[in-house]
């Protein structure tokens, strides 16, 4: 790596290390802390790797754990690249999370070309939709050419098939010039199974399993260097790539009981860079713990994260519209649950979770916690792709039902996020796909998912094989819209426009007023009131006045409104 004048690598495990540089083998000398150094200075264009001696034999040449570019994939040589780039975003002053509209996308399936350039081509479309930030699913290198990205193994690099480091910088630069912030989904809770050589160098993991891989060593012996490895990655995304924020995958799987938790260290790093550059940098955590400490300020004993995903609001909304009640949906499914969840963010705030068989969660302080810190959605990559066949809600719901869900999310004060394609009712699936370079890994992955979904009652014959190329290509968005999809898209545009015009992203949770009946809810927020019908027949709700927008045909009276099946109305507050 290029943090000194010479090649160096942290490798306390092997007895000897040598540098393989441009076809030449060069000895290395061990220094303090398990670091090895070679008498060679990195030059742009160098291709290199390391060979490790375990006391018996030398390994094959393997990549640098801190590699910044892998032109030939995770099993190939690392390449030295220049950090320089002709940035044109000097006028960019950043975007804070409050008031943002996030659009989550997978680079490989978002466009026909499946790369960063393909995202650039649709920035005008996203801006017209009302999007202010794109969130890229992980782009760190993984085995093969097709992957969700959560099997990344080299946390300082960018997948070459998407365009590599230069391609990502081009995308960020283009987004900033379009007034759009860029968030990157990063995975620091496990390493992928294909191409992970880090354990040959040092104890990057500590045993045990997260369900996706071994637990990362952030609290055991030699964990200081592992933490530095992660924090240097965080810093690099912000400083060298000009990213505006990071989405931190499954932070509940971080085994960290230290006095200065890694998440808090990340917050300090982001705030330090923001102070130095004058551009805000945000951290959004994914967690299933319903723990408000994630977004509680550091001064109040929290981690100081700027936001976190909220699955409970999704679950409450999804069950009402779809009727599904299996698995973790068991405790959701009526308007009272949706109303209380919208009001207090989490459904489980200490009571028993049927799915978990234990008490779960903790109540947030609604009087001091801004609504913008909670990211909500009608669906996301998990809630779509972790279904057996990757079917989207738009493949099972009517346009009215789709817009009803969107109206609830966009009329709430929380930070909204769209998952690519939902805004026009995409009918292509988003299935789980991978292309591990090891056939046995592909077989095990496929069999594991088949067993999992078979237990839930799915026909194994219908479950797509993750490693089949067709599973990936079938998941690509189709950008040729039908008239029905054009209507859905216009509905999304209108709702996002009204969100801005009616001031519905206001931060004060206590100013939101929610009521409900057996089949309906109302939500007064900002300058509007949303009334929504979650039944398949007409319902009269005790709110009327001036109609601002509806996707269906409600009858709005002075003191009440008759909503048609799965209809909603946005009224003047």
Describe this structure in words.
InterPro entries: GH (IPR017853), GH13_cat_dom (IPR006047), Ig-like_fold (IPR013783), Ig_E-set (IPR014756), Trehalose_TreZ (IPR012768), Trehalose_TreZ_E-set_sf (IPR044901). Pathway: Glycan biosynthesis; trehalose biosynthesis. The record marks 382 as: Transition state stabilizer. This is Malto-oligosyltrehalose trehalohydrolase. The active site is at 249 (nucleophile), 286 (proton donor). Helix content is 26%, strand content 18%. Helix 6 (223-239) packs parallel to helix 7 and helix 11 packs parallel to helix 14 (483-501). The protein folds into three domains: 8-61, no CATH class; 102-188 and 221-312 and 367-398 and 405-501, Alpha-Beta Barrel (TIM Barrel), CATH 3.20.20; 513-572, Golgi alpha-mannosidase II (Immunoglobulin-like, Sandwich). The longest helix is centred in the C-terminal third of the chain and has 19 residues, at 483-501. The protein is α/β, with parallel strands linked by helices and 573 residues long. A hairpin with a 4-residue loop joins strand 10 (205-209) and strand 11 (214-216). The mean pLDDT is 96. The strands form six sheets. The protein has an eight-stranded parallel barrel, surrounded by four helices. Strands 1-4-3-2-5-6 form a six-stranded antiparallel sheet, with no helix packed on it. A five-stranded antiparallel sheet has the order 19-20-21-26-23, with helices on one face. The protein starts with 7 loop residues before the first strand and ends with a strand. The chain is elongated. It is built from 14 helices and 26 strands. The protein has helices at residues 107-110, 116-120, 123-129, 164-177, 198-201, 223-239, 262-277, 311-322, 335-344, 381-385, 399-410, 439-455, 469-473, 483-501, and strands at 8-10, 16-21, 24-30, 35-38, 47-53, 78-79, 102-105, 133-136, 181-186, 205-209, 214-216, 245-248, 282-285, 307-309, 352-353, 358-359, 374-376, 415-419, 513-516, 520-525, 528-533, 539-541, 547-549, 555-556, 561-563, 568-572.
């Amino acid at each position: 790596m290029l943090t000194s004048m010479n090649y160096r690598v942290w490798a306390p495990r092997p007895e000897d290390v040598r540098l393989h540089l441009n076809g030449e083998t060069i000895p290395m000398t061990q220094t303090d802390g398990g670091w090895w150094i070679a008498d060679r200075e990195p030059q742009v264009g160098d291709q290199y790797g390391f060979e490790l001696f375990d006391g018996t034999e030398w390994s094959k040449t393997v990549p640098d754990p801190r590699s910044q570019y892998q032109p030939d994939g995770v099993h190939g040589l690392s390449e030295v690249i220049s950090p320089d780039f002709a940035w044109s975003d000097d006028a960019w002053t950043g975007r804070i999370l409050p008031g943002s509209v996030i659009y989550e996308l997978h680079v490989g399936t978002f466009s026909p070309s499946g790369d960063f350039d393909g995202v650039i081509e649709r920035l005008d479309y996203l801006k017209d939709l009302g999007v202010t930030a794109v969130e890229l699913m992980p782009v760190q290198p993984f085995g093969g050419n097709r992957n969700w990205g959560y099997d990344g193994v080299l946390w300082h690099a960018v997948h070459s098939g998407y365009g590599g480091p230069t391609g990502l910088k081009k995308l960020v630069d283009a987004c900033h010039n379009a007034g759009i912030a860029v968030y990157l989904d990063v995975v620091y809770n496990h390493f992928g199974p294909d191409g992970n050589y880090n354990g040959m160098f040092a104890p990057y993991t500590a045993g045990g399993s997260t369900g996706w891989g071994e637990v990362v060593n952030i609290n055991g012996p030699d964990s200081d260097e592992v933490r530095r490895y992660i924090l240097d990655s965080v810093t690099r995304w912000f400083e060298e790539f000009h990213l505006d924020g990071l989405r931190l995958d499954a932070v509940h799987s971080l085994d960290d009981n230290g006095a200065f938790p890694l998440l808090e260290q990340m917050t300090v790093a982001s705030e330090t860079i923001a102070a130095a550059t004058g551009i805000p940098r945000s951290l959004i955590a994914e967690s299933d713990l319903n723990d408000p400490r994630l977004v509680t300020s550091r001064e109040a004993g929290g981690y100081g994260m700027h936001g976190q995903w909220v699955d409970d609001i999704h679950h409450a909304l999804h069950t009402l519209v779809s009727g599904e009640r299996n698995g973790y949906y068991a405790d959701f499914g009526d308007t009272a649950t949706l109303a209380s969840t919208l009001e207090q963010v989490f459904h489980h705030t200490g009571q028993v979770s049927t799915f978990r068989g234990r008490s779960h969660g903790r109540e947030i302080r609604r009087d001091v916690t801004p609504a913008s810190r909670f990211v909500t959605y009608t669906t996301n990559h998990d809630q779509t792709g972790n279904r057996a066949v990757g079917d989207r809600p738009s493949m099972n719901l009517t346009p009215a039902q789709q817009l009803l869900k969107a109206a609830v999310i966009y009329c709430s004060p929380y930070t909204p996020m769209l998952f690519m394609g939902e805004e026009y009712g995409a009918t292509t699936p988003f299935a789980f796909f991978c292309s591990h370079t090891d056939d046995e890994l592909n077989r095990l992955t496929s069999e594991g998912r088949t067993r999992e979904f078979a237990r839930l009652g799915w026909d194994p014959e219908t479950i797509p094989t993750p490693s089949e190329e067709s599973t990936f290509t079938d998941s690509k968005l189709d950008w040729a819209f039908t008239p029905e999809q054009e209507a859905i898209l216009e509905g999304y545009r209108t709702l996002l426009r009204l969100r801005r015009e009616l001031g519905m992203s206001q931060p004060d949770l206590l100013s939101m007023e929610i009521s409900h009946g057996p089949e309906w809810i109302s939500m007064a927020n900002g300058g509007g009131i949303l009334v929504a019908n979650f039944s398949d027949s007409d319902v009269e709700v005790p709110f009327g006045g001036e109609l601002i927008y509806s996707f269906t045909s409600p009858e709005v009276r002075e003191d009440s409104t008759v909503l048609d099946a799965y209809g909603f109305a946005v009224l003047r507050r």
